[in-house]
Design goal:
It contains 3 helices and no strands. The protein is mainly alpha-helical and 147 residues long. The protein is rod-shaped and about 180 Å long.
Length: 147
């Protein structure tokens, strides 16, 4: 029985030694993991410091995009209004062109009438007109011719 107890004690010592070695290895691994955690925490803090300005820049760029979009909407409205104005001006131009053509036709008619009148007037003799002059008109005409 003593041998059995010694054997059991030896086994327990072996088990204790194994477990102590395991505990030592785990403590060592824990220390390595703590170092690794420290390094990773530092890197995380560093990345967060870098992210801060970038987030500010992203926010600023989003605001800039929103402003630019507002400008685009404004310019589109302005462009649409100007397109309507241009279309209206084209219609007015066509109307005025027709009016010009109409007036040019009337001018041509009036010029033809004037030429016909001048031709008819030239046919009337100068002497025929003088024959109908009154004495008073004759004196006025002669006085004016002397000057």
């Amino acid at each position: 029985e003593k041998e059995a107890q010694e054997k059991e004690i030896a086994e327990r010592r072996t088990t204790i030694e194994d477990k102590s070695k395991k505990i030592y290895d785990l403590k060592k691994k824990t220390q390595e993991l703590e170092k690794f955690k420290f390094v990773l925490d530092y890197k995380i803090k560093e990345l967060k410091r870098e992210i801060g300005p970038r987030e500010d820049e992203i926010t600023r760029m989003k605001e800039q995009i929103a402003n630019m979009y507002s400008e685009v909407v404004h310019f589109k409205r302005t462009n649409d209004n100007l397109s309507l104005i241009v279309a209206d001006l084209h219609l007015r131009q066509k109307g005025m062109q027709k009016e010009i053509e109409t007036q040019a036709g009337k001018v041509a008619e009036n010029n033809a009438y004037i030429r016909a009148f001048e031709t008819d007037l030239a046919a009337v003799s100068y002497t025929h007109l003088r024959a109908h002059e009154t004495g008073r008109n004759l004196v006025c005409r002669l006085l004016l011719e002397k000057k």
